[in-house]
Fold Arylsulfatase.
Amino acid sequence: MGLWLFGCASLLGVGSPNIIVIYADDVGYGDLGSYGATGVDTPNLDLLAKGGLRFTSAYAASSTCTPSRYSLLTGEYAFRNKEAHILRGNAPLIIDTGKATLPSLLKSRGYVTGLVGKWHLGLGGQGEPLDWNGEIAPGPREVGFDYSYHMAATGDRVPSVYIENGRIVDLDAEDPVEVSYQDPVGTDPTGHTHPGLLKNQADYQHAYTIVDGTSRIGYMSGGNSARWTDEELPDIFLGKAVEFIESNKMNPFFLYYATHENHVPRIPHPRFRGSSGLGVRGDAIVQMDWGVGILLETLNRLGLEENTLIIFSSDNGPVLFDGYYDGAYEMNGDHRASGPWRGGKYSAWEGGTRMPFIVSWPGAIAPGVTDALFSQVDLLASLAALAGAEVPEGEARDSLNMIETLTGRSQTGREYLVQQGVGIESLRDGPWKYVPKGVMRDRRKIGIVDKQSISAPGLLYYLPEDPGEQNNLAGLYPEKVKKMKSLLERELGG
Ligand code: NG6
Ligand code: CA
């Protein structure tokens, strides 16, 4: 096959490819073999990278989950929506159901759209407590997904159940689910009251209701027949993703496959225990990579591999300790989960948002590596363009159509982008990075949040010579600082 497809005047109308976005959780730039990982092998993702386009300057919109996912699905920076912060497990849906979304636009062009895995964008309407035992809406289906099989929020937040098309799976009506993030509900043991029942010790925040031997954030009662088993979770999601592909092999589909790996609690299936040199954190990455292999095999088996565009990326940078004493910090050795970048999850340093980002479409994309600047917020406009969908006026305002860059036809990336950390935003403009005054955070050590107060004129780095953001040039280049500061303020204020 190869590049003949691009002989056409445009990509539009070229037999719409299937699109799969594999969106990992807390997987860092340096966690994949193709990005230099040591201590963990990722052969399937490496193969994907070898046959596809590997980005070295692609960014998540934020260094935490909810905001990054919000941006990916809406094409809007998350700081524009004040609800788009890390959500509790019973938070209402934060995407306006009238908004154009990545799935709704693809759906308008005949794609069947599916979500499998992590959601964490809220469920139910604003201002009314959600009844978990009836139809759970609005949710993924009201913002453009035809099919959904997902967790409500995170593995470490209740409710610890699967939700399929708006219903809790395997729920017994006699044992209704109740969820609270304030007052206790029911009589289930918690990590605070029954630490002896725990498989993994947790910090205070993660020591509420115990589900499957692991305490979580929040209180939950009921739904015993519906509660997940952590070890099985990735296999269950993978199975649903495979089923979705199988049942849509005859029509274009969009699958948003949001893996739970590598979020806490990291409890890999026993067959992956010890599969890396990094303890459970690495084992969970090996497990995720194996799942990617199964997806690729499925596409091959169904003859879909040539015409399926796969994007692999992650929602935010890595974290070693995130609430459970699981040995990830102690076992890390020399592995650099953020690669050459500074910081990780929660941080506006490069490691918080600069992501592994691989695009594969064997029928149309030539293998290669690109350092074009790209933001996940651009996926909406780019993939909409690929599918021939028009983004309605006023929607997805931060999303740029970068389809030529995404498919390797152009080496030109964005000029600049905003990186949202917790409580602070920074700006990447060409090779430069600017951080205004505020507090930079990072959390890689056990129970310690590294914080650094920054005063005016802020921080300025020249990344090609200083990838580790060590040498502040703000004093040397006041004009550059001024320009970047006003650009950042314009973006944030607009
Ligand atoms: C934090 C949790 C952390 C993790 C994170 C969300 C505490 C102390 N920490 O608030 O464990 O759940 O939220 O991660 O509660 S994310 O990848 O979904 O953004
Ligand atoms: Ca995450």
Remarks:
- Residues 16 and 387 are 6 Å apart (CA to CA).
- Confidence is low (pLDDT under 50) at residues 1-14.
- The pocket of NG6 (ligand 1) is lined by residues 25-26, 64-65, 86, 120, 154, 156, 205, 217, 263-264, 316, 322-323 (CB under 6 Å).
